[in-house]
Amino acid sequence: MNLDLRLDTKGDFYSQRFQPTEREDTLVLNMGPQHPSTHGVLRILLEIDGEYILRAEPVLGYIHRMHEKMAEVMSYPQYLPNPGRTDYLHALAWNWAHVAAVERLMNIEVPERAEYIRVITCELNRISSHLLWWGAILLDLGAFTPIMYAFDDRERIQDIMQRNTGSRLTYCYYRFGGVAADIDDKFIEDTRTECARLKDRAKMFKDLVTDNFILRKRMEEIGEIPIDTCRRYGATGPVLRGSGQPYDVRRAEPYSIYDRFDFKIPAYDTCDSMGRYLVRMDEIQESIKIIEQALDTLPEGDYILPKAPKRPKPPAGDVYFAVEGARGKIGIHLVSDGGKSPYRLKLRAPGFSNLSLFSEVAQGTLIADAVAILASLDLVIPEIDR
Amino acid sequence: MIVKSLSETLSGMWSLLVGMKVTAVNFKSPQITVHYPRQVTNLDGYRGHIELVPSDEDPTKSKCIACSNCVRICPGACISLKASKPKKKAAPEKTDAPSTANEAQPESKKEAPPKKAKPELQSFVLDYNYCCLCGLCVESCPSGALRYSSDVYVAGFTRQEFVYDLLSRLQYQAQKKEQ
Where are chain A's structural domains? Predict the structure, then answer.
């Protein structure tokens, strides 16, 4: 009997399993996979009563590219470009997690200068990621102009990064034992100018957007994520910090040289979309602080270990390395059997955990608010689907 | 209650005016965009597809020693190269009547030092369709025979157009330079 019913029902596998409900006056609606506010190919099944969401369920996997499996068939250096393709907005953090996991397994000591270069470029990348998010969330909420200001700054950062990394988006800059190219005086000078500029821009961002009455109405007390929910789903990054827990991998388990810098971990206990918004806006300023401190104390020396292994063969064993990305905790679990490619590589994407709590949070909200919540989670779909 | 909502509305209106001021100030500020095709600003450091570096003695020949390091490291497997079998230079007296490579080999193995046994590059083909521009090939090259070209304007109608024969490209460029 059930089978007959299923044949009659319209929709695909997911919407059919979403159907059974006691109410008859509701509508099942697909938000995505091609929807501007889902920032990629994310599909969300909604059961709606008028404008209100009764249930929401994300459907994933539209851009699954087997990044984990690819690692098993590629040698270690061949996999270097891959992590940057998962989260293309903060590629360098992923790059770092991969490279550092291998380095930890092989006990490679990275030169001091290389560590500083990594910190500077990774933080620059974090700023550009947050700037894009800032433009995109406002675009979702119906404000078009701010993304133009965001891209003005973002382009400058990309111009700076282009000179030493060679790319503007999907960076592949870190190598086992250092970085691919050294930074020069022009890079340092440009970075300082850009940092000073971004500090000035903060007031403009605040006047134009953060203090805006309409934005506050759209985001304050919308999408409240209690700290318990964050813990249950394993949410990290600005989502967790927007719920009042100042957890940051850079501070909690300091990797590289982050313990040498003085920076704050912004946290807001309002738990709403505005809290997450403010966390990211503050993080831009904190990243600038880190960059300036790193530039002041940049040591001379090698940018890559002279004896860095060209074709590393880590000893058998497993290792976990976590870094703080723009979206949360990026973890790489690497199992090696002593061969030239990993036995297994597990990527922990922060966006996946952050998205998982959406179906619980979106219950009972308006569709327009669900868009605000979704945008405040800062999702990058290729990272979630991997 | 009324006072509260009134003050909220007024402060809200004020925030909109402050935002409008930002727009007005930026409206008067100089243009920051560039007229792209007519005005190009940030192409230094641009990494296009790879190309072969000409050798110092002969600009039509590449520095490549055909070690296949780039072929092995490429994640997209987009490089394929062919090299002739190492032609051993025979002793100077015998060069007048060059024999076939097969015959020359056993003789030269005894006489000529193995240093001269260089394989010569015959073709170097890049399938740009699968290239992810990671630059690992350039880094892995021991002889510095690869570099990034500055070809920005690549567009085409078919896949085949992006399969580049880099050795012929090098020879063509050298000929063009001579003219």
Answer: 2-59, 67-385
